[in-house]
Amino acid sequence: MSAGKFPIPKFRLRTTIVIPFVLEIIVAVGIVGYLSFRNGQQAINTLADKLNGEISARIEQHVIDYLNQSQDTLWLSNANILSGNLNLKDFDGLRRYFWQIVHKGNFEGYLAYGNEQGEFVGVEYQDDGTSQLKIVTSATIPKRETYLLDAQGERQQLLQTAKYDPRTRPWYKAAKQLGKTTWSEIYPFFSSKNTVLGISPVSPIFDSQNNLIGVLSINVRLTRITDFINHLSISTNGQSFIIERSGNLVASSTIPQPFRVIGEGDNRTVERIAAAQSDNPIVKATTQHLLKQFNDFKSIQNGQNLKFQTSDGSWYYAQVLPMKDGRGIDWLTVVVVPENDFMDQINQNNRNTIVLCLIALSIAVVLGIRTAYWISRPLLQLAQVSEQIAQGNLDQQVNTSSIVEIDTLGHSFNHMTAQLKSSFAALYQSQESLRIANEELEERVELRTAELRQEKERSEKLLLNVLPASIADRLKQTNESPAEYFENATILFADIVGFTSLSSRMEPMELVTGLNQIFSAFDKLTEKYGLEKIKTIGDAYMVVGGLPIARPDHAQAIANMALDMQAYMRNSHSILSESIELRIGINTGSVIAGVIGIKKFIYDLWGDAVNIASRMESHGQAGYIQVTSSTYECLKQDYVLEARGNIEVKGRGEMMTYWLLSKR
């Protein structure tokens, strides 16, 4: 096979010298960077497991210790009953004992006792530092009375009564069902109107025949657990949470309340939040990963270290640790930390490595280029001169060289350049004259184009001051603007009270200046709320919402503007007077809108809804905003309105109207 059949690859001398240096540095730095990153990843995995394990252990220790305090208090109270120091039939004695525990303790908020007859006595510590007695006696069944206690724990005043039967509460049922000291399920506290979740350690009390007498209970709020894990320092974006084996949230470092309140007032109920359905994306993703790997939470019996990836591609480390106290608590503690929290330093080191690599690479390139320059400078200069001549730049001279062959070639180039230069001189003169003429023509065209553009912009601005933008566009395109029907629009008429008498006392120019000040402020409000000003007639101002482009909140936008118009008149000092007031009327309904005629046209409205809006203004009162029933229906959810009642409206008979007072 002939060697001439295949083209021989060609390389520049500078490239041939530089590339080996660059490739050597890239390969060496790449291997070092990869090994560094891989070792960093392994170190991060170990560190994440250790950190998450320590945090999980701290949470478990704190929660168990906190819950055991309530169990110890319950055991002590039970011991006092068994020893005869506490008489369960002496509710005053129980009150004093409970008050001492609640008043001096730092964790029990509510210590109580209920019996099989439906009687109940409990003392609850309030957030404001006071204590309350809650009691049901045989004389008050089924009513529970709540008393404020003084600084000595004595009854001070009756606060409220409510229907209450301790035997129906979750804490009582748990003790009665198991028949020994245990924990209740998590449930909403009755004393907090079902808006606080908690859990209760409970202890049943039996007589000598092993018959149930009653149950001792302590309310433990879950907010204390939430506060603790919320203040744990995990990492920048780390989270921790506790769940039941059922999957419901117990506490979270990022979710203030592990439940949702449904309803209002006395009908409020609490709905537990399942961690797998949480609004928190990290809690939700972690829980769903646990369910995917273990099928259910009950199968997690030992501590687990996990690493998983979310749908957005982020990696997380998770530690799951079972939490049990031997008395009924069986929860799972979960600590989750994003990989990025650990990788920040490694990424910074990688960036530093890359910078150093780039510096080393730059130095290698500079040295290679410099070496190539020393070798190839004479040839490179000759090549550059050749390229310049080929591009038409004939003002080139090749410098003399110490290399004979290159010096001879350089003299030949210089002689050729001189001949070409003389040949192109005549041609250049004729082209230069033509270029100057073209430039003058282009300048005149650009100047005229700029003048036409300015005139067009001025005309469009004038047209937009008269008509809405959409109507103006239609007129420019089709030279016609047929009237349109709008099913829902809200019209506002405003009138300055006493303008006629005011105009008789003022100079015409002063009067016009004052009106311009007021109406200019109103014009700014139309722009603010996206409304369409229709016209001004003397001291009357007309504006509409919901056209020429329909919008669902036209009534709200008009109401906001009316309230702002009132506020402006109250807070601004017009040159007309310091005490002038507006009379404003608003109506909502269907209208016809468009432009009529071909000269001095304006965008206007027609329809019964317009006439009624005008009547609302003329039949209104100074300083008030009067609206019709149709407008009232649009605003009643978000605004404060007051019924004026039925009024006689010219041409309409009796109409029910309302005063618009403010936003809710």
Automatic annotation (TrEMBL):
It is found in: Cell membrane. Residues 490-617 form the Guanylate cyclase domain. It is a multi-pass membrane protein. The lineage of its organism: Bacteria, Bacillati, Cyanobacteriota, Cyanophyceae, Pseudanabaenales. The chain crosses the membrane at residues 17-37, 353-375. Pfam families: dCache_1 (PF02743), Guanylate_cyc (PF00211), HAMP (PF00672). Belongs to the adenylyl cyclase class-4/guanylyl cyclase family. Keywords: Cell membrane, Lyase, Membrane, Nucleotide-binding, Transmembrane, Transmembrane helix. It comes from Pseudanabaena yagii GIHE-NHR1. Residues 373-425 form the HAMP domain. This is HAMP domain-containing protein. The keyword Membrane applies. It comes from the Bacteria.
